[in-house]
Design brief:
By secondary structure, this protein is of the alpha+beta class. It has 7 helices and 5 strands. It has helices at residues 24-35, 39-50, 97-111, 126-134, 153-173, 179-186, 189-195; strands at residues 18-22, 56-62, 68-77, 80-88, 116-118. The protein has a 5-stranded mixed β-sheet with strand order 1-2-3-4-5, with helices on both faces. Strand 4 (80-88), helix 3 and strand 5 form a beta-alpha-beta unit. Helix 1 (24-35) runs antiparallel to helix 2. The longest helix has 21 residues, at 153-173. It starts with 17 loop residues before the first strand and ends with a helix.
C-alpha cells in the first residue's frame, strides 16, 4: 500500500525515452510479447481486460528507437489505484525504468483523484519489492497460493467423475427422483460398478 502518491511535475520520462498510452487490448499483446506468452494467452488476457468492470489503462516506456523497455497498467476506482503487470524488458533491467514508469502512472492517478495505491508482488521478487519500497509502498499483508496435489490425468478424471456420480445419486435419493431416469441414461453400467 502506498498512501502518498507523487505529483506529476516530479515525474518525467528519462532522456531520449517517452511514455505512451496503450489501451487494454494493445497492452495485453505488448506485455505478452515481452514475457514470451503464447498468442492464445495474449488473446485471453485481452479478453479479460476488455470485460473488466473497472477500466485498465496501460502505459509503455519506449526507447528512442521505439522499442518497449518497460510497461505497466493501472486501474483507478474512486480514491484507489492499483498497479498491475509491471514488466521491464530483460535488456533494460537495472536502470530504474520501472520505477520511473510507476511514478508517472501514480502521479497521473493522483491527478484523476486517486489517493492510495496498491499492488501485489511476489515475496521472492526482491528487486521489484525494493523498487516499490522506494516509491513509498509498504507491505499490507502476505498471501500464498494453494495447489491441488498432482495426479495422473486419468486418476483425476476418474475421481471427478466418481464425485459427480455420488453427488448425483444423493440428489436422486432425495427430492429429485425425477432425475433418476436421466441419470440412468448417462451413467454407464461400468461406472456404477466402480462406485460400489
Amino acid at each position: 500500500v502506498c498512501p502518498a502518491l507523487p505529483r506529476h511535475a516530479e515525474v518525467a520520462a528519462p532522456e531520449g525515452m517517452r511514455f505512451e498510452d496503450a489501451h487494454s487490448e494493445a497492452y495485453a499483446y505488448i506485455v505478452g510479447e515481452l514475457r514470451g506468452t503464447p498468442l492464445a494467452g495474449r488473446q485471453a488476457h485481452a479478453e479479460r481486460l476488455q470485460h473488466s468492470p473497472v477500466p485498465y489503462q496501460g502505459v509503455v516506456l519506449r526507447g528512442a528507437d521505439g522499442e518497449v523497455l518497460a510497461c505497466a497498467q493501472s486501474a483507478i476506482e474512486s480514491e484507489l489505484v492499483g498497479l498491475y503487470d509491471v514488466f521491464t524488458a530483460p535488456s533494460a533491467r537495472g536502470q530504474g525504468l520501472s520505477r520511473r514508469l510507476c511514478a508517472h502512472m501514480l502521479a497521473r492517478a493522483r491527478e484523476q483523484g486517486a489517493r492510495v495505491a496498491y499492488l501485489q508482488v511476489d515475496a521472492a521478487n526482491h528487486a521489484a519489492r525494493a523498487m516499490y519500497h522506494r516509491l513509498g509502498f509498504a507491505d499490507g499483508y502476505a498471501y500464498h497460493y494453494r495447489a491441488l496435489p498432482r495426479l495422473d490425468t486419468r486418476d483425476w478424471a476418474d475421481r471427478l467423475q466418481a464425485q459427480a456420480l455420488v453427488h448425483a445419486e444423493v440428489h436422486v435419493h432425495g427430492l429429485h427422483r425425477r432425475a433418476a431416469g436421466a441419470l440412468a441414461q448417462v451413467v454407464q453400467p461400468r461406472d456404477k460398478d466402480r462406485l460400489a
